[in-house]
Amino acid sequence: MPTPHIAQEVFLLSIWSISLVLEGAIGVNYGRVADNLPQPTVVANLVQTLGIKNVKIYDSDATVLSAFANTGISVIVAVPNNEIVSLASSPSAALTWVQTNVKNFFPATQITYILVGNEVLSGDSSIWPSLVPAMQQIYSALRSYGLDTNIKVSTPHALGVLAVSFPPSASVFQPNISTSIMAPLLSFLSSTQSPFMIDAYPYLAYLADGGQNIALNYALIEPGAVGVTDSNSGLHYSSLIDAQLDAIIYAMQALNFNNISLILTESGWPSEGDPNEIGASVANAEIYNNNLVRHVTVAQPLGTPLRPGVEIDTYIFALFNEDLKPGATSERNFGLYYPNLTQVYPINLNPTSCQFSTNLALSYFGFCGFLDFVISRILSLEGAIGVNYGREADNLPQPTVVANLVQTLGIKNVKIYNTNATVLSAFANTGISVIVAVPNNEIVSLASSPSAALTWVQTNVQNFFPATQITYILVGNEVLSGDSSIWPSLLPAMQQIYSALRFYSLDTNIKVSTPHALWVLAVSFPPSAGVFQPNIAASIMPPFLSFLSSTQSPFMINVYPYLAYLADGGQNIALNYALIEPGAVGFTDSNSGLHYSSLIDAQLDAIIYAMQALNFNNIPLILTESGWPSEGDPNEIGASVANAEIYNNNLVRHVTVAQPLGTPLRPGVEIDTYIFELFNEDLKAGATSERNFGLYYPNLTQVYPINLNPTSSQFSTNLALEGAIGVNYGRVADNLPQPTVVANLVQRLGIKHVKIYDTNATVLSAFANTGISVIVAVPNNEIVSLASSPCAALTWVQTNVKNFFPATQITYIVVGNEVLSGDSSIWPSLVPAMQQIYSALRFYSLDTNIKVSTPHSLGVLAASFPPSVGVFQPNIAKSIMAPLLSFLSCTQSAFMIDAYPYFAYLADGGQNIALNYALIEPGAVGFTDSNSGLHYSSLIDAMLDATIYAMKALNFSNIPLILTESGWPSEGDPNEIGASVANAEIYNNNLVRHVTVAQPLGTPLRPGVEIDTYIFALFNEDLKPGATSERNFGLYYPNLTQVYPINLKPTCSQFSTNLALMEGAIGVNYGRVADNLPQPHVVANLVQRLGIKNVKIYDANEAVLRAFANTGISVIVCVPNNEIVSLANNPSAALNWVQTNVKRYFPATRITYIMVGNEVLSGDSSIWPSLVPAMQQLYSALRFHFLEANIKISTPHSMGVLAASFPPSAGVFQPNIATSIMAPLLSFLRSTRSHFMINAYPYFSYRADGGQNIALNFALIEPGAAGFRDSNSGLHYSSLLEAMLDATIYAMRALNFNDIPLILTESGWPSKGDPHEIGASVTNARIYNNNLVRRDTVRPILGTPLRPGVEFDTYIFALFNEDLKPGATSERNFGLYYPNLTQVYPINLRPTSQFSTNLALS
């Protein structure tokens, strides 16, 4: 319920990136304090009709929850305030509550949150101490029922929990709840990855203020509201809701909680109030709620000034007016609807950047419109009006005056022609985006000098950013229309500037481009004939466009219809056509069929066509200059104040509010446009017109009236592929179980994705309400009829999709199956049929839920070995594949491939393809692609990458893959070698692991990119024709007996935003403090034979790094301790270190981490202050060399960094390093998503204890060890190693770092020691290391009691005994091997047996 609270807030724009990823959706509060509301089933239908996906209720009413069952709508339920105390101390009460109110309804009703109370901390204070305990009890109950990964626990607050909210940066929680309640509450939210929920009502603040200080448009989120700037943070606020939300974030930060996400659980505006309730009206309620929806879904930038780009789920208060609510009249009038289901006012709950006409779905031009609209989803820009601020004049106002003028005009974007310091300072803290420029005469010097580029960016950009919001650096101006001696230096200079931006970590905020004159085109009429000048088309433009594409930067063009009109002399170009006047006749391009009603559109499309002619289809445009002169020489026809006023006003409307936005070739794609120019410039050379393009005279008088306040919007569509395992459910058989039985089987197996080969109604009905995603198919023989008939496509989608969706979660329609490997008469109809189906989906508003694609056999490739030469068959490459890929790219759909290593192995006859390579077996030797340098250890990866390379050959680099079929037959004809139950079991189990939990996921060409994979097939199909193998690909016989065991439940959960589960692989430390070790290449061979995938060394030795090249083994390298100080303050030294020790070997040698020193904080304290700076310098160097995505930076610590480690929950860092070094170090690790590295040796603890208190089996990780229970946390520890690791995690938590993952970089046990070194023996070493390996590799994943289920990469110390190590005898005897390659004791580095579950939480 709304609680009055004043919050006048202020901000300036912040560009700090925050790694909080939320889905940002609109929901609604369904309150029921009324006696006249519709039945819940009616309400559920209404919510579905409105397209609302999220609903929040204030209890857990069974009738309501049942009404929302099987609707696909997410529901938030609540524990009433009066039940909190009883739940707080009673686990059984919590279990009963969850059983009764949640488990009985889930998953049919998609409950996503349990709210414990409502605005508890603004009510009865006797409940406050019970709030967090009740939340913990509810969470424990969810865990008991296995529901904690699906349902989160939180509680909503009123803004009254803040003691201070103005300015936002000063915000803190009320002192009576801050440390006693809020701190543990926030700790709970952080540890369970739950959001902070806030009810924020700008209306109540406006009401309390009485309209004295808070402007109504500021409260109503109106565009153009002046807003306020927070004097502490410099952030600017243009809406009160943003200020209120950021006040909450600042209050959390004051308690050292920086990364907890927000949900706005209530916000709204009343449509009626008492006489004293100012502002309560239907008009204001309509404005506020419509603005709120746009603000959190499509406005740019999303998020708040303190967290830009972070979307916030928002729940409007409320769905209905509630007649029984007590209090003021406004309390009963927050609803969007009256109880009789009449709207109180119109509201658009699903805003988009443009409206799509359903008539297009039935017209001949239908798909052209659709295709171009969808391109807009890829090429969307903010579509704003900016202005060029040229200064070739001696009478202009001071820059500070100009900055004030620009702000007054509401202009958000300014472009200048240099980097004048006075100008940049004037625009600081204004919220205005600024484009700066490298002068043409500096390009050559920058092109070949990285240091010059670093200096340029430091001096002209970094010194001003982010106070001045620099968004682009333009390298030169119209370079390719000027001095040709500069041309070869243009792209190298851009690349140098971009590398410098990366070095300073500015590349995500600032892009690099260069503006061109239209003269770069050799032909521009008709637009479809647009091509670049031949002297730049092949030599300069392709690499230039490639740079823009790879850096996601726009092509910038200066276009002046006036100049074309002037050159034509008014003979052929009509003035109204040049002036963008409505009603201009225009012309139709005879090649494309597109109609042009304005010259500017024709000029822009000519540029797009010229890029397309070079196979660059998706680079966005910015119109960096366009304008019309207000005065000219006598021969300069058309130059007049009247025409300038008409042109520039029309230009503004054309690119911001006219429909359709964009151009005929890219409809719906908005184009940022910069008017040339702000002022007349009296010193410009040339014709009179050159000095008269300004909107203003230098004395600040307008030359003519102009409206510079356009509306801005943005498309946003993301294709999130969830790397998962699915199964093909083929039915070419006469003995299969009924579909309902099959659906039950699939559910029991935990399979979430099924693909069928038609749209059988019985099958689709069987999968209804199962939560399983289904891919359906258009049979090949229906493709031709669909290709030319929109009506047929509409009927097909209605009959086969719409009638079943959303009860059956259809996610893809595949048009045909392996069409391009079959009847060629169908081929020309394939893409048109896909387009028609897509248009039909859009007609029914299903295109956001259901994608369209088609699966291919690997036979579409003309070459696939090595993968880097992958190309499509020449008879389909350009004629079919290019438009097909364009369709997939535009609709953000996946390329589907059926890939069978079995068939390649069969065709090869086992001559060249090793069986283990085909079976995805760990340890397969594989091969290295000599062109790319990428190493392939499995045939499936090579096949997939060959497909990706084939797409790249057609200039499609970013289309995702789905592996729609892959499998291995369990039986075959005598000549079908390799077809056996054993091989099928090995292949499919390996395939599941390979695409779900192996590290790195993805393929060598796309590492880390997960691929949805569908195993072929669920059943053996007895009616399939062909060889015996064709009938024996099933996982099951038709009688539901397994053909062989398979685990189809991969782990795909995540510990936290930053703490991703690892494979939990075993690595080894390869120390070399010895004089008798084998040569590095011998060691590399040994490591490969052992199946070890990870090696850590203590330097960056060249011989070692070369020995591990092309082995597929990941290597951790190290900066010696004595080099840290020199690297800490020297960027050049860091660049040189990375170049010499990393870049020259990578990627042939798969370096994954650079360790900065070894156990630094347990050694020479003079190095300590340099540790984090050295890590930061090396990270910047990695960014400069574009390596930071592949290589991380950390540093390993001994357990000596802890001041306390027993019990684990008391773990804290040493006081002399905790805040001074560890806090910034952990902050660095978090921001770079790197691991905390710890060296933990239970042996040393056991030795120091003398066997008095620490049992040997507890130290040796032996199953059955009694262990102990931490009295603070209640967690049980059955091994000393677990306790050590959790003590480290607790120490990080004590500094408010809860989400940083661990790597156990050293652990081992000596096989020999001095007489006093108890426990050092071959037997104990064998037991410890074998147990260590099993603990960290077998399933189920154990983790630690504090982080159950989280796997840890573990590096055994050490590979060899090292005879030159100083110290006790044990130091020289940690090796698994003697230097002569004899094992010290047997060890299994790839165990498959189950490890004791005693390690799990008790």
Automatic annotation (TrEMBL):
Keywords: Glycosidase, Hydrolase, Signal. InterPro entries: GH (IPR017853), Glyco_hydro_17 (IPR000490), Glyco_hydro_17_plant (IPR044965). Pfam families: Glyco_hydro_17. Residues 1-27 form the signal peptide. Gene3D superfamilies: Glycosidases. Belongs to the glycosyl hydrolase 17 family. This is Glucan endo-1,3-beta-D-glucosidase. It comes from Sphagnum troendelagicum.
